[in-house]
Amino acid sequence: MYHAGTFITGKSFLYKLDPRVKLAFIIVLSVFILWSAPIQVYFLGVALLVAALASKISIRSLAQSVKPLLIFIILIFLAHALFSDSNSSFAGISMSGAHEGFIVVLRFLCLIAAAVLLTMTTAPSALIAAVKYFLRPLKYLRVPVDDIAVMIMLALRLMPILLLRKEKIENAQKARCYDVKKAGLMARVRSFLSLIITVLLAVFRRADELALAMEARGYAREERTSATTMKITPLDHAAIIIFVIAAIIFMALKYYLS
Amino acid sequence: MTRENGSVRGIVYAALFGALTAAGAFIIIPLPPVPITAQTFFLNVAAVLLGGPLGAASQFIYIMLGVVGIPVFAGGKAGLGVLFGPTGGYLIGFIIGAFVIGFIANRKKDAGLLWYVFSMSIGMVIIYTIGVVQLSFVAKLSLIKAATVGVLPFLPGDILKIILAAIVSVKLKNRIKV
Fold it and tell me: A5 and A65 in contact (C-beta within 8 Å)?
């Protein structure tokens, strides 16, 4: 299973930042990307490309994470280009509409690039620790934050198991000469139902076993400790200072431009 | 899900359905003309079988899997940016929708196929509403344009998934104890 945007170990400076700092950066950046003036979007795009190059993330892997969204991007662009309200049009495509669509698409691409930069440079376990750190205030609302972290870990572990189980059953069907492509509509629905029910019953059993095993090992629903330790280093301080200064300049420019 | 009534089993099942919804991005229901992914199918089943709070928790877990970088959002997307992006509203809707579906479905004892279809339809309306509002806001489209891009293409598939999910839920509801 190859997927763009998944963690790859590395040593460049984005890897060395604390996951909490990175997560906070991305949240702020996401808001900036959506609220910036059109000219600033170009600037943000360039800045993200520079950040990617500086942390030795190849442009190719960035492009790959965009590829599955191409149709959606084209749809959004066309919706703006073809249905813009302005009158100056050329062959049904209005120029201001096209530019507007281009900016919307660019904003979208920046969002993806920012997210990919985060997830490619942060191990999932570190990211979960960071998510848990930021969810901590929810404890006062009686949300079991520790349990949520455990659930995310469990789900991470279960996902490949589920996909394997499904593949196994499909192979069993193929071995018995069952061909989905030749089946009629109702037969397809019936085969999907039988496949899904078989998979679900099997994984329910597995989940019951897992719950039993956890209880047997004394899993308690209370404050938990973690193997991942996070530490803010001078590098993080420097990054935070630079980011805050950049953010202030950015907001001042946005105010000046509008 | 509070500390008092949530069991370890509940935790495991919410995680399981979060993982199922995520895996749903890679499970394609082979139907012509457009193959559809099984994600909202699992959302519906999770909500009905787990009930409101745990169903909502399972969808929260699903979104967190995406946030930490597993490409489980529609179209192989991942990351926090997606939540703020044009399609993020649907994902936030998943949590609220799952809660409502579970809540309505469990209002009635011995609920049958029709009741499940009804509660799932209400949930889907909620998900679409939140999704379209965010789509129109982020992509700067009018509400009607946003609905044309963001609802119509998915409606037939979702109706089918609701029916399939209701059938599966009826068959499995006595096999699961949370």
Answer: yes
